[in-house]
Every structure is written in structure tokens, then in C-alpha cells.
Automatic annotation (TrEMBL):
Residue ranges of every copy of the Response regulatory domain listed in the record: 6-120
Organism: Stigmatella erecta
Record GO terms (molecular function): ATP binding; sequence-specific DNA binding
PANTHER family according to UniProt: ALGINATE BIOSYNTHESIS TRANSCRIPTIONAL REGULATORY PROTEIN ALGB (PTHR32071:SF113), TRANSCRIPTIONAL REGULATORY PROTEIN (PTHR32071)
All residue ranges annotated as the Sigma-54 factor interaction domain in the record: 144-374
The protein, known as: Two-component system, NtrC family, response regulator HydG
């Protein structure tokens, strides 16, 4: 997270509340704990908060009351409800009243973290779409910003492709804005009033990804205490965006292909399939043709997805858009950091930005601008301030460099590298797990092993 999200946890059992507060804090969230519905409403009104995780069954003021109070103040703040008294009726009622998600106790912590992160990302993108429209002055293509020749060509393609039903494969380097283009395809097409659902195929382990995509029935596997519809069903009549499709496990590629061919999806553990009407937009930074030749990606699935290809330009290929993007990102960062004095960049800074290599593309520029808005104590950012862009890291701090001087056991090197990546991510273990391609529970387990002093098994 580039800024610390504030989470309000509500549970009238103090120990349960603390059980959630500690791991959420470890993930980099700022967590407030309320032990009653009335206290939660008071804290939320004093706010602001980015999300609420509330128990449903509480005396006097229950979770539904908390949900209503949150919606009255800010309907865009996601509320995730949890209860030890499961049941279809409670779940349906919660979703009808506008809850973002519903958990039945006992739940898995990693599941809470995944859905909380998705809720925060959904809220961020909703706010981002509004801000981008205001700053860029565009009404037709949502969050896309830029007037360079490559971007004008992209706008024309998006407007043309958006009104078709063809599957689209968005290709480009990481940080180019592939999800923003996917959303533009959705909002410009006939499915705009239906759901847009996004999933990163690298963010979840294969077993959980299958359940997320196709759903599962109650009791389908250990921990499946309630049924889940799955993202294909959630996206029915709308668009499903599959980010980093090139990393999808082989066994799921076959199941995805069947859905694309038959228009039917079967939940894990279910006896029957269900028909869905979903437009697929996929994205990758990899050359899928090479992965097909290596046997790592199905050729038939590739041809199904690659009906229409949109190649996104790198920031290096549209440097003339940098001043407009910088202005836009300043406005967004100021909205998140209202105490900042930064109002703009000097001409020297704009010129320097135009000459940078930008391996991380637009995302790297956005992160740089936010750091400058947070850290520079003046209205105008000067050339000397750009040293904040790439703070020096001592090579000796890298575990792989340390390991060159002596032979380390693989387990120790792995643990040190995980710790190093977590530190580089500002302590955000969920983000570190994404980069490492592991489950966040693995990081928590390594922390417990290190804290106990017991050697890892």
C-alpha cells in the first residue's frame, strides 16, 4: 500500500477483535478496535476509515446497524460482516443491505486478508476512476490519461473493440495500466451496467484460485464452511478480467478453456454446471507464444483468448504524456495527503522525468510522485528532491550478496530473502507474498518460527 489504509474492526468479544487486529496491523493497516456497535458508529463518524470488518450478532447495536450507519456517512466504504451463526438467510440479507462480503466463523485469516485487500482495491479504483475523469478531462475512456500518438491509437482501438463481444488479450510491460484498459473496454461497451470483476492469477495459490473463479459448494474441501458463487457467476452478463493469465496453472487452463467453449461453469464439489454469459478480457506481460512452445501454456486457450490483441505502449514510448500524468498523480496524491504543500514540479524536474528510463512504467511514475508529495515540504518540487526517487540500498543488505561470502543452508537463505522482500515492501506482507509467488500464511509461519527460536522443519 502506498498509503496506510485505516480499518475499523468491530467485535463485542475483545479477544476476537484482537485476534484480527494483530495480523491486520502486521499487513501494514492502521487498525482501530471497537467492542460494541455503538462505539463503532461513533468512531466511524469521527473517521475517516477505508473499510469496516464487523461482527453481525451484537447486543443493542448489531452489524446491520453498523452497516447502515457506514452507508449513511460514506456508501463507498466497504463493510465486511462476520458471524458465528451462519446461514443462507443471513448471507443473503447482508448482501441485500449492501455488505461487501460475508464470513462465517471460524474463518481462515488468509481469506479475510484476500477479501479485505480486494475490497480496498475496489474502493480505490472507484475513486481513481472519478479523479482520472476530472483531471484528464475525458468522458469516454474513463481512467486513461495521455494525448501522445500511441495513446490516441489506443483510444481508437478501445472504442472500436469495446462494442464487440470478442475476447481481448491486453499485452504490455508491468505498470502500463492493463487493468485500466480492461475497465475502459467494459465501461465503453454494452455490458457497462453489469459487473466488472478482476482477479490476478498470480495473487492466489492454485487451489484457492480455482475456488475463486468457479466457486465451491459447502463442504467441498476443508474450510469450505459456506458455499461461494465464484467470480464467473459474479461477472454474469458483465466482464471478467484475468490479469497475468500467463501464470495460470496448467490444470486451471483446461477448466477455463471449457468455460470459454461451453459457456458453463461448475463449482468445486458441485454435481451440475451453470450457464454464464461473461466477456473475457485477459492480460499478460509475458510472451505467450514462447510459453506455448515451452509447453507451459495451452495453445488452444491462447487462440481462444487472443481474438483481439491490444498492445499497451511503455512510458518510454510516450514520454510526451509525462507532464500530464505527473499533474494527474499530484492531484490524486494531494487528495490522499491533504496536508501536503506540493502543488507542482519545476521545469527542471519535468525535463528530468522525461529523461528517466522508467522500467516500472506509469506505476513507477505514480509511486515517485506520491513519495514527493508526501516528503517535499514546499509548493514546488525541485531537481534536488528527485534523490527521493531511488534511495540508496547498501549491497550488503541483500541476502544473496551476503551468501556469496559463505555457504548458507537453502532454508536459511530462503527465510532471509523473504524477510528482505517484506522489508523492501515497507512491511506489507501481502504485497511481498504476491511478489514472491507464495501464500501470505507462509510468511506468517516463518515469522513464528523465527520468533520461537525453533529451527524450521
Amino acid at each position: 500500500m502506498s498509503t496506510q489504509a485505516r480499518i475499523l474492526v468491530v467485535d463485542d468479544h475483545l479477544e476476537m477483535g484482537r485476534m484480527l487486529q494483530e495480523p491486520l496491523t502486521d499487513e501494514g493497516y492502521a487498525v482501530e478496535l471497537a467492542t460494541s456497535g455503538a462505539e463503532a458508529i461513533r468512531l466511524f463518524r469521527a473517521g475517516p476509515f477505508d473499510a469496516v470488518l464487523s461482527d453481525l450478532r451484537m447486543e443493542e447495536v448489531d452489524g446491520f446497524d453498523v452497516l447502515a450507519a457506514v452507508q449513511a456517512v460514506d456508501p463507498e466504504v466497504p463493510v465486511l460482516l462476520m458471524t458465528a451463526f451462519g446461514g443462507v438467510e443471513n448471507a443473503v440479507e447482508a448482501m441485500k443491505r449492501g455488505a461487501w462480503h460475508y464470513f462465517t466463523k471460524p474463518f481462515r485469516l488468509d481469506e479475510v486478508l484476500i477479501y479485505l485487500r480486494r475490497a480496498l482495491e475496489d474502493r480505490r479504483l472507484r475513486r481513481e476512476n472519478r479523479t482520472l475523469r476530472q483531471v484528464a478531462g475525458r468522458t469516454g475512456l474513463g481512467a486513461l490519461v495521455g494525448h501522445s500518438a500511441p495513446m490516441r491509437s489506443l483510444y481508437e482501438l478501445v472504442e472500436r473493440v469495446a462494442h464487440s463481444e470478442a475476447s481481448v488479450l491486453i499485452r504490455g510491460e508491468s505498470g502500463c495500466g492493463k487493468e485500466l484498459v480492461a475497465r475502459a473496454l467494459h465501461t465503453e461497451g454494452e455490458r457497462a451496467s453489469a459487473p466488472f470483476v478482476a482477479v490476478n492469477c498470480t495473487a492466489l495459490p492454485p487451489a484457492l484460485l480455482e475456488s475463486e473463479l468457479f466457486g465451491h459448494v459447502k463442504g467441498a474441501f476443508t474450510g469450505a464452511t459456506t458455499a461461494r458463487r465464484g467470480l464467473f457467476v459474479e461477472a454474469d452478463k458483465g466482464t471478467l478480467f484475468l490479469d497475468e493469465i500467463g501464470d495460470m496453472p496448467a490444470e486451471l487452463q483446461a477448466k477455463l478453456l471449457r468455460v470459454l467453449e461451453d459457456g458453463e461453469v461448475r463449482a468445486v464439489g458441485a454435481d451440475a454446471s451453470r450457464t454464464v454469459d461473461v466477456r473475457i478480457v485477459a492480460a499478460t506481460h509475458q510472451e505467450l507464444e514462447a510459453r506455448v512452445k515451452e509447453g507451459k501454456f495451452r495453445a488452444d486457450l491462447f487462440y481462444r483468448l487472443n481474438v483481439v490483441t491490444l498492445r499497451l505502449p511503455t512510458l518510454r514510448e510516450r514520454r510526451e504524456d509525462i507532464p500530464l500524468l505527473a499533474e494527474h498523480f499530484i492531484a490524486r496524491a494531494r487528495a490522499r495527503n491533504p496536508r501536503s504543500k506540493v502543488a507542482g514540479f519545476s521545469a527542471e524536474v519535468i525535463a528530468a522525468l522525461g529523461g528517466m528510463p522508467w522500467p516500472g512504467n506509469v506505476r513507477e511514475l505514480e509511486n515517485l510522485v506520491e513519495r514527493l508529495v508526501v516528503l517535499v515540504p514546499r509548493e514546488t518540487v525541485e531537481l534536488a528532491d528527485l534523490k527521493l526517487h531511488a534511495p540508496e540500498v547498501e549491497p550488503e543488505a541483500h541476502p544473496l550478496v551476503l551468501a556469496q561470502d559463505s555457504l548458507w543452508p537453502l532454508r536459511r537463505l530462503e527465510g532471509e530473502y523473504i524477510a528482505w522482500v517484506v522489508a523492501r515492501c515497507g512491511g506489507n506482507k501481502t504485497r511481498a507474498a504476491e511478489l514472491l509467488g507464495i501464500d501470505v500464511s507462509t510468511i506468517h509461519r516463518r515469522d513464528r518460527e523465527k520468533g520461537s527460536g525453533n529451527p524450521p522443519r
